[in-house]
């Protein structure tokens, strides 16, 4: 998998030259060289020893069984001990199919009188296919580790001590193997036993490959926490990667009427927080409920809305929460298109809700169903809470998707005709009046902002006869027309706002809105789809 | 359907080569740039900081090495030629392409490698690189490569007689360079999927394809599914699949589900684009109208698409809206919507049920695991959708999921 690192490497460079201090995982001995020479494309072909022009036409790979191979420690150390000009910035190097990422960090040497500075570089080897955003995350991790190590070096010379241990172990093994050739113990094994930094690096590597969340204390003093979103968010779906860019996109489209759904129990989350975590976050989690919108949450936990937005972003990034529209009776849900039902899920579900079958429950949502439709008028409140629990469980597992109603205003049979398109369509005399009215509407949208012009535009519409089409059948009160006109002008009926959003922004009731939709159904076309902000977390729509 | 969008996005993103330079290991001075177009694009200071990656240790010869700096990305393929005649018994050189730091350069890798091999051949044959200090011919060559690759994505290199210096280069060597955009590997094609042309069929020259493709192409009409194409074209099923997969890779066709009046489609959030994008509107009207002379109205088309929601089958829609009267060809309407991603198909999955003895006799049951869609089951068992729905109806252990 391209998200996992192939290897983590520590290189230093100082007045004594550059040296590869530690790498994990370490393969015993490189067998690539001997392999490469003898490997032939087919067993009957001649081995041509000196074929300058056509040597190794097949792509060279430095990855073998998920391990970095074919590059010796010396080569790596010269590559990663960069020139001072390249320090303190992103280091990215691709050799064949391996990509190396790191942040070369300079530290003033500890305890020395000379102004000699030392350079160290924690490099991650990744597969070359790793995307820009993955590379960026690894770079960030390397930078963070660098900052922490520099701090510890300044505080108590931790890095110098560790480097001393590693170098002496390397030398020890090198001299020993000269004397007794049968001893092929890797120096890295010994370093792991002796140096705490090497154990930290090993734990970084293993958390990256397992959970994607790193939480280590370097030198039992400074904490480094890091989250690899691509890994953390992967748990629920195979082959679908959530990049930080997707999360950013989601956070940008976050609105006060959205709510959050914690993916783990609030109490567990509170326990897992570090001691120095923000008290605002704790308050927010204490006040959390999937029925509350962010605005309500902000009011309840006595925080500003921007603060709540930031905390939400944080929770989403760390895969502790996801965005939903707060649960309410009118919410319409349908089975998510990327739902994968595994037998494991079935078991967990029946454990959680004894006597219920996940398949049957999902079958109820095969067609878009609102919570109020699911509820039997005779059912007791107990059943209601059970249903809410089930829906929350299904949403957590990404099995359900909420649908919203979007409204599109189409005054003419040709849609919302723009000004330049007008001339092309003028050939049809019948449509001229309609076109004019549409254009006027656009003009009005641009030029007027105050309610003062409302009446004016109303008369304009009347003159052009745009709303006259229905007056033959029955009369539509002018209040409704006024409302329609206002909503159109504010751009709510361009297909980008769902009913709940219009209700929230304009402070009108659902019934009012539905009335308008019904009365003007000839020009207002409704369409049910998912909220793009929330759908970002579903693989079907992610890309 | 998303892959189509990705493909087009990839095509739009061009990462031109900003500079090509030729560097060598000078026996006295060390690594240096000897020829560069445009001149002085990479300054000496920058080159010195990265020279270790451009003329690397012996172990890394003949590896593609890309180093990303703040502003540039340098892609090279270091080469070493061993020969006693050189000052250090070997001649090291590296031909490098420079792009923007954010550019993707993977597709240039084979080109750099091939061109390095070409230069190497010239050097081995007649010391083209090492013989003289004058690099005007090389500069011309690099200039040509950069121009042609950026403009046409391909370039043909031929060495010519260098009349000015009276050095005869036997003009027999030619190298063709081509930048091939790397598209993601297309997913395996399944029996029940329907290939459909993304552009007019007339655009393609029949003779540029292989024989199998030539035999398959006439049957790709946007309605025949893969298994049917195989039967009608009399080509083995797997060959058709490979062939369609190949066509998908080149962006010639895309896959859509079988059209059936019992199908349920759902509008996506992309449908909004149809109201804003006039180009898309024109194309949609032209594609979905029944008669070219009397095009359908956009509002009717939009209403058709918008009414496609979960639970409304195509049959219901046709009965309610009567597309015939609206001058809409509903089959082509659906095709257009699927290709453009305005709508998506709602496949039906049949999750499994506990087996019992009686059930095992019916071969259909082995597909009731929740991983097969109704189309797939129909295609592999040869039963109609109605028959299978009937079986599901009678058995309370099997449920249908629309998703």
TrEMBL record, chain A:
GO BP terms: cellular response to amino acid starvation; negative regulation of TORC1 signaling; positive regulation of autophagy; TORC1 signaling
Cellular localization per UniProt: Lysosome
Domain GATOR1 complex protein NPRL3 C-terminal HTH: 477-525
InterPro entries: HTH_NPRL3 (IPR056603), Npr3 (IPR005365)
Signal peptide residues on this chain, from the entry's feature table: none
Top-rank taxon, per record: Eukaryota
A GO cellular component entry from the record: lysosome
Keyword Signal: yes
Annotated keywords: Lysosome, Signal
PANTHER family in alphabetical order: CGTHBA PROTEIN -14 GENE PROTEIN, GATOR COMPLEX PROTEIN NPRL3
Function according to Swiss-Prot or TrEMBL: As a component of the GATOR1 complex functions as an inhibitor of the amino acid-sensing branch of the TORC1 pathway.
Similarity comment: Belongs to the NPR3 family.
UniProt-recorded name of the protein: GATOR complex protein NPRL3
The species this protein was found in: Frieseomelitta varia
UniProtKB/TrEMBL annotation, chain B:
GO biological process entries: cellular response to amino acid starvation; negative regulation of TORC1 signaling; positive regulation of autophagy
Any one GO MF annotation of this record: GTPase activator activity
Annotated Gene Ontology cellular component terms: GATOR1 complex; vacuolar membrane
One Pfam family from the record: NPR2
Signal peptide from the UniProt entry: none
InterPro entries reported for this sequence: NPR2-like (IPR009348)
Alphabetical list of PANTHER family matching this protein: GATOR COMPLEX PROTEIN NPRL2, NITROGEN PERMEASE REGULATOR 2/TUMOR SUPPRESSOR CANDIDATE 4
Family per record: Belongs to the NPR2 family.
Protein name: Nitrogen permease regulator 2-like protein
Organism of provenance: Frieseomelitta varia
